[in-house]
Amino acid sequence: MEYILGFLLMGMEDLAAILLCDAFLKRRYRGARFYLTLIGFLLFSYLLANIPFNHLPSLRLAFNVVIHLTEICCLYYGKIPMKMILCVLWIGLIWGFDGAVCMGIAHLHSISIPALLADPLSCTITGLVSKLSLLTSTAIVKQLHPYSRNIPVRWPYFFLLLPFPIASVASMVILWESRNAAVLSQRPITICLFLLTAACIAVLILLDRLEVQAQEHEELAILQRQTEIQLESIQSLRDSYAAQRATVHDFNRHLSMLHELLYAKKIQEAEAYVSQISCTVPTRIMAVKTGHPLVDTLFSRKYIIADEKGIDMDFTVNDLTDLAMENGHLVVLLSNLMDNAIEACERVESGREVRASFLLQDNEVFLSVRNTSLPVQITDGGIVSSKSDGLEHGYGLQNIRYILSLYDAIPVIEYTDGWFQFACEFRNMPIS
């Protein structure tokens, strides 16, 4: 019975860890694979917890940190510092609730802690109350902070936050181990444990605020970039409209001249005039025709820019009239992708090519951009920038990922044999 109860309490701790991690991280696996891996770690932790030398508090704490950090890394995506913070906070909550509940019950019944722990029934009730409190607190965290996506928080913030939960856990261990010391009474120790537990919860709130600020900063950068691109698109539309008006005016003048030559039966002069003006008529004012004015204008504008820089650009498109993506998101996404492709081609001495595909079929959108490029380093699904202005380049990639995340799309980035490729696929549905 003792082993079953111990396994149950440890299972409640692991469930609290899952609730806490679900609030801040994305799971690697779904369904049975996730829970089978979780049960495997739980069994391994339980076996280590019952090894005789593991009853030393410091050694037990070290085992818990290593095992459960490994467990979180195996079960969740995310940055290591973030996982370290959650792991230490979780252990801090365990020690905090265990110590605070135990000392609180002992104080209320005016008995010593050894006497409380010596009674099997009282010890069981204390353990259950502690684990239920732990589960309740992590469930509240998950309810108040449902995971939406992994917002990139700067690394220095992680390392500034990490020492605080570590110090809190260390203080809890020291206070718990000094509970029998004659110089300290149980009341101040209990109060300190409650305060340290509250401090660990406060770190979670602070972490949430940092994520919100990071998201606001990211959205502000995206909005600024979107405004710049929209102004460029407006100017492109104006240029196209002016060029079209000039073309129509010249076309009417040429028709009038041809009419006069043909009316005068000057066939040879008319043929010569047609040959002459055919060399001066601008071609491909709109290089792409998809039925979506914004896509046509943007792709055509990028085609003109690429042509001026000696870059061969080719498009594979179909009817995009029913494309559901918001115009602002569409401008940011396509402009960043095409600008990155053009900039990469500029660094190549020969064979400058860009191949873009934008297709809508069976309510699925497929977007791909391939371009010749110098070798690039791909790390964690992103490219290491070679630009001197790394911040601007980083925001370009963040903008692309952020826009796609709104449509539940995960981009695929590859570099093979001198070609860089970006591809993604998502449902043609407006975001809610």
Summing up helix and strand content along with how strands pair, one would put the structural category as: alpha+beta
Radius of gyration: 32 Å
Mean pLDDT: 76
Helix count equals 13
Task: Report the sheet with the most strands, covering strand number, pairing sense and barrel closure.
Answer: 5 strands, mixed
- The total count of strands amounts to 7
Poorly predicted ranges: 387-395
Helical proportion?
Answer: 55-70%
In the sheet with the most strands, the strands line up as 1-2-3-7-6
Question: What best-fitting shape do the alpha-carbon axes yield?
Answer: rod-shaped
Strand content: 5-15%
N-to-C terminal Cα separation, in Å? 51 Å
Written as H for each helix and E for each strand, in order along the chain, the element string is: HHHHHHHHHHHEHEEEEHEE
Descriptive report:
- The chain is an alpha+beta fold.
- The chain is 66% helix and 10% strand.
- The chain has helices at residues 2-24, 32-49, 57-75, 80-108, 113-118, 120-144, 155-161, 163-177, 186-263, 267-278, 293-308, 327-346, 390-406; strands at residues 312-317, 353-361, 364-372, 378-379, 382-383, 412-416, 419-427.
- The strands form 2 sheets. Strands 1-2-3-7-6 form a 5-stranded mixed β-sheet, covered by helices on one side. Strands 4-5 form a two-stranded antiparallel sheet.
- It is rod-shaped, with a radius of gyration of 32 Å.
- Residues 387-395 have low confidence and may be disordered.
